[in-house]
Amino acid sequence: MRILGIDPGIAIVGWGVVDYDKNKFTPVDYGAVRTSADTPTEIRLLEISEQISEIIDRYNPDAMSIEELFWNTNQKTGIIVAEARGVVLLEATRRSIPLFEYTPLQVKQAVVGYGRADKKQVITMVTMMLALRKAPSPDDTADALALAICHAHSGASRLGRFYNKPSTMRGKIT
């Protein structure tokens, strides 16, 4: 199974593609989509959409694992991140890729074995589990790889939200 993990954001969207077969992980590729703070939000969302679309088309994942949003004290930031997350979900839905959502607690539990693990522990375990020569950077990329690992460990027992192709979902506007 090929899994695309996504850590959504507006400045940085971490992504990681992992193959999982017979309890073995093979890292395929990973990186980050970056947008500039001095660019209007709508252009940043378009840039995220275009780059995630290219990643999906290049790696043809069987599933997408994405972090659920949680609200912190800054609601404005949360709303903008939600918009970016929506763009990513749209790109997966356009291609009928099954979507699976995980909380940070679930990801840490699946990767480290402890739901309150810190970021350094997650990065260390991702690096070890994928036999990477060096830790993935930035942290958002490590988080995306952790999301892919989390899905590999727990996704088989969960039913994701699966959407039909857009051509079969279109309704008539009256």
Describe, in short, the structure shown:
The chain is α/β, with parallel strands linked by helices.
Task: Please describe the topology of this protein.
Layout: E1 2-7, E2 12-21, E3 24-34, H1 41-59, E4 63-67, H2 75-94, E5 99-102, H3 104-112, H4 119-129, H5 139-154, H6 166-169
Parallel strand pairs: 1-4, 4-5
Antiparallel strand pairs: 1-2, 2-3
Helix pairs in contact: 1-2, 3-5, 4-5
Describe this structure in words.
With 174 residues, the chain is of the alpha/beta class. The chain has a single domain (2-158), classed as Ribonuclease H-like superfamily/Ribonuclease H (Nucleotidyltransferase, domain 5), CATH 3.30.420.10. It is 45% helix and 21% strand. The chain is built from six helices and five strands. Strands 3-2-1-4-5 form a five-stranded mixed sheet. α2 (75-94) links the parallel β4 (63-67) and β5 (99-102). α1 packs parallel to α2, α3 packs across α5 (139-154) and α4 crosses α5. The longest helix is centred in the middle third of the chain and has 20 residues, at 75-94. The radius of gyration is 16 Å and the shape is globular. The model is unreliable at 157-174 (pLDDT under 50).
Please compute the radius of gyration using only Cα atoms: 16 Å
Overall residue-averaged pLDDT value = 89
Fraction of residues in H or I helices: 40-55%
Query: What is the straight-line distance between the termini?
Result: 42 Å
Order of helices and strands: EEEHEHEHHHH
Assess the beta-strand content as a share of residues. Answer: 15-25%
Q: Determine and state the CATH class.
A: Alpha Beta
